[in-house]
Amino acid sequence: MKCVIIANGDIVDYEEIGKLINDCDFIVCADGGAKHLLHMDILPHTIVGDLDSIDESAKKFFKDRNVDFYRFPKKKDYTDTELAIKYALKKGVTEILFLGVIGSRMDHTIANITLLLPLLKKNIQAKIINDHNEIMIVDKEIAIAGEIGEVLSIIPLTQKVEGITLQGLEYPLYDATISMGQTIGISNKFIDKRAVVSIKKGKILLIKARD
To answer: Which of 44, 55, 119, 164 is least crowded, fewest Cβ atoms below 10 Å from its Cβ?
Structure first.
């Protein structure tokens, strides 16, 4: 089951983001992310969080339409986005798409990206999408669709990432090693409509980006 979690970060292109949401089976809103769904006139299955950032108009709109609210106290050990993940996992989801998890608060943005790590360990497919990026964490082989000239970057998340092979990109690698802090994996480009990234040991942050 494919789940989408919408948080309170930045979303600009509601038309395209709405298409992504409508392609999912289960919709979970993390607190203030409700404002985005209100703009798109989309009903979530549930709204999770301490409800300290949701607009009153959005709260009323969704309560009037019998949307479930799963409320937590303000003093808690988890962010609203992590609580949304825990809720979704209890529902048996196998894939999670994150929207609205990147914004001006860099602490929240970085924390949200790291939430992909425990999902990887649970074999849950997880991806962050905003108006300019698709973000994943990879520890084995993955094929990525893209347009020719589109940017693909890899960033080590472990001290060393070994056995890196890149195919379908302008700058291929074959069984290479990249250490944390090296930037050799930044701003590669698709030369085909399909790239393959594989690694033997370690974890990488994979970002397909556009300006």
So the answer is: 55
